[in-house]
Write a structure and sequence with these properties.
The chain is α+β, with helices and mostly antiparallel strands. The protein has helices at about 1-30, 40-65, 65-125, 145-165, 180-190, 245-265, 280-290; strands spanning about 125-130, 135-140, 175, 195-200, 205, 215-220, 225, 230-240, 270-275, 295-300, 305, 310-319. The longest helix has about 60 residues, at about 65-125.
Length: about 325
């Protein structure tokens, strides 16, 4: 059936094509004009219309005779278009995920380049200050002479860092390099009132003998972190938890939780200082009391602000 249809379409095209050409030639010779066009252009248009007529007849015959063609044209093509649209929609999340992965790769490459730079710096010399390291901490309270106080802090920080780095050029007066915008921001914020902590951090790794240190500030509000007599953290233990093997481990765990708690509150203290022989105190309490459960409390011995040392004692009470 398909071969007969193909042969028929070839014959039909072969018959109509000469007819269209002949019609175009006759129109051209007759000097016939459509829409005030030149006869030559009119003949061309007639030939084109004849070609379109051949195509239309071919498609019409295919639709009329071939069921497979009708299936492909009216069923399969819309279905494929719908599938294509759905596939495009399904690809959108994948494209977003790909973009996220590309961003992660770019960030990792940047991090790798920074690490390579750090390694090169370590190989070149003795690194005395690391990138991001806090190199100076100062407290300042807003007052009419705040700019003068800040100037003293900058000079003190500069002298302190020079003792660490020991610049190769002895004639250098100021080793710290600040962005002007950072200093302006510090002065603007501290002038508004309140008590503040200024952390001066290194922007790069610094080698011994370097003549300049690029720094940036971090400004924190100097607030009360813990009050005197406040129970910062506590934990309930059973008597068996205070045997020789577990007592030190349990105390270290509780102090680690205490350190995490004060960090959450905004303290910049790295360590907690404990007072008293609390292990002896705990063991003495266990000998006197025969209870099975006890509460171990970490109690602040003084008011401490953001940059202050945290001093605590451990207290044990029976339940």
């Amino acid at each position: 059936m398909a071969w007969i249809l193909i042969v028929f379409l070839i014959l039909l095209g072969g018959l109509i094509a000469p007819f269209g050409d002949l019609l175009g030639t006759r129109i051209g010779k007759a000097r016939f004009s459509i829409l005030k066009l030149r006869p030559k252009k009119t003949a061309t248009i007639v030939t084109v219309i004849t070609g379109g007529f051949i195509s239309a007849i071919s498609i019409g015959l295919l639709i009329l005779v071939s069921e497979e063609f009708r299936q492909r044209l009216f069923v399969d093509i819309p279905f494929l278009q719908k599938t294509l649209d759905e596939s495009k929609k399904a690809l959108l999340p994948l494209q977003k995920e790909r973009e996220m992965l590309e961003d992660k790769i770019i960030n990792k490459e940047k991090e790798l380049n920074r690490l390579k730079s750090n390694v090169n710096e370590f190989r070149r010399g003795n690194v005395v200050i690391k990138r991001g390291q806090t190199i100076f901490i100062a407290q300042v309270t807003s007052n009419p002479d705040i700019k003068l106080d800040l100037g003293k802090i900058y000079k003190s920080a500069d002298k302190y860092v020079q003792k660490i780095v020991i610049p190769s050029k002895k004639e250098i007066k100021n080793i710290l390099l600040w962005r002007t915008s950072d200093i302006s921001e510090i002065e603007a914020v501290t002038a508004k009132g309140g008590s503040w902590v200024i952390l001066i951090k290194s922007a790069t790794n610094v080698l011994k003998g370097d003549n300049f240190v690029f720094v940036y500030p971090e400004l924190l509000q100097n607030k009360i972190i813990v009050r005197r007599g406040e129970i910062i953290t506590s934990e309930i233990f059973e008597k068996k938890d205070f045997d020789y093997k577990n007592i030190n481990s349990n105390i270290k765990t509780l102090l680690r939780k205490t350190r995490d708690e004060i960090k959450l509150r905004g303290s910049i203290a790295n360590e907690i200082t404990t007072r008293g022989d609390f292990i002896k105190k705990i063991r003495d309490s266990l000998k006197i009391n025969q209870n099975n459960k006890y509460r171990l409390e970490v109690i602040s011995l003084k008011d401490s602000k953001t940059a202050d040392q945290i001093i605590v004692e451990l207290n044990i009470t029976k339940l």
